[in-house]
Amino acid sequence: MRRAILVRAPLLLTLSAATVVAVGQAGSPAWQTGASSGPAAAPPPLTVHADRRYLVGPGGQPFLYLSDTAWELFHRPNREQVRAYLELRAKQKFTVIHAVALAEVEGVSVPNAYGDLPLVDKDPARPAVTPGANPKNAGEYDYWDNVDYVVDEINRLGMYVAFLPTWGRWLGVNQPRDERIITAQNAQAYGEFLGKRYGKKSIIWVLGGDRTGQAFEEVWRAMAKGIVIGISGREDYDAALMTYHPGGGNTSATWFHDDRWLDFNMQQTGHGPAATSKPWEKIAADYGRTPVKPVIEGEPLYEDHPIGFVRGVRQNGFSSDNHVRQRAYWTLFAGAAGVAYGHHSVWQMYAPGLRPINGPLYFWEEAIHRPGAAQMQHVRTLMESRPMLTRVPDQSLVADALDGPERIQAIRGADHVFIYTGAGIAFTVNMGKISGPRVRAYWYNPRNGTSTELGEFENSGTREFKPQYEGLGSDWVLVLDDGSKAYQAPGRLVAAPPPVQ
Description:
The structure is a single chain. Helix 4 packs parallel to helix 5. This protein folds into 2 domains: 330 residues, Glycosidases (TIM Barrel), CATH 3.20.20; 100 residues, Immunoglobulin-like, CATH 2.60.40. By secondary structure, the chain is an alpha/beta fold. The N terminus is likely disordered. The radius of gyration is 22 Å and the shape is globular. Helix 4 links the parallel strand 4 and strand 5. The N and C termini lie far apart (56 Å). The chain contains 13 helices and 23 strands.
């Protein structure tokens, strides 16, 4: 991970609650908000906070990893499509965009929108680069020039690139032998090329690519070594912020938790039903590992995805915005330092004339407007509304946490509590877990980012809280604040609805 902007640990540890709250309540710091025009100006480097739970930016300001998954972004769309997509995601307050240099869907054999391939003869040690970079001159504008454009657009808009050098397919993992393009012999050279070219951009390096690390550990280690050598000229793993994207139901910690290059763990809790995938358990397992490292939910259930890869509506059906909200709040409240959103049509950039993968319901340029993506900004609003860096998961707050789609998940700081009910189920809170003799309570609405005030209560004993409605799509976050604090309502305050008759 980068150390250049890391402030001394005592300063980070003594960051006042008032300072962090001011950031959250006044809106995001300038380096996270992006811009709609002007030259590329990459946001500053990120690093791991001193307590090893969260990512931070300049001066120790908390950074929420809130990403959209656009795996084929470097490969399939043209520049105009890229710009329209990224400007929408910036307006929706995403902070990270996932994209893959050697894309999964025939990324080394089918040219990009401009007729270019990334490699000469599918050799990672021979990137297909040409002199010049004029997009109006096909002889100059090569595949990597287009990747440059996408990276710069993401950075210009104040977002970071979760940059995957390759999909795991191209190591030959679970693929025919002729797809074993990246090997232990050429991975370092490919990594050096990428590190030299993109080392000064606002990049979060993500190795892996939806595959196991088992039996391929040395290939990934060689690539990580190459990236940092490309950036710094030596094997300096402080030169890059780096993780690993595993296959479904797995974590980077299985193979690389103790590796120096792995700054934080990444989970893929997967696309199955909540009752079987139990993402809160997977996040909690990584949260509890030593040495301590942050954990990011890098691939939960996508929106409009066949649940468990079963497309029949009489079986599991397709996911909705309700499901992606659940995954986001469950994982963040279980201790994740960030979460990915994804849409089943967008990750593959599905368009007319392309082969559909696992039954996408929309073309991607329509799917980017689906409701789940717009609702992710409300996750960020809530998480940034109270001090984030001292927040810890605490299920002892809830008398009965339940399980599956009715899961109740809780997290708290020293002076506030967030409790998520995934299906509007009433629950009983064990009070007295935060400061103050009295608490001020709100219901926060994950669907529209509004909140309703419930009043003040004694901070002792137990108290039941019951949402107005129950069932899938009626998820809520209970917010409890130390009543002596001057916190504003999370999100836009609205009047409480009339009681159910």
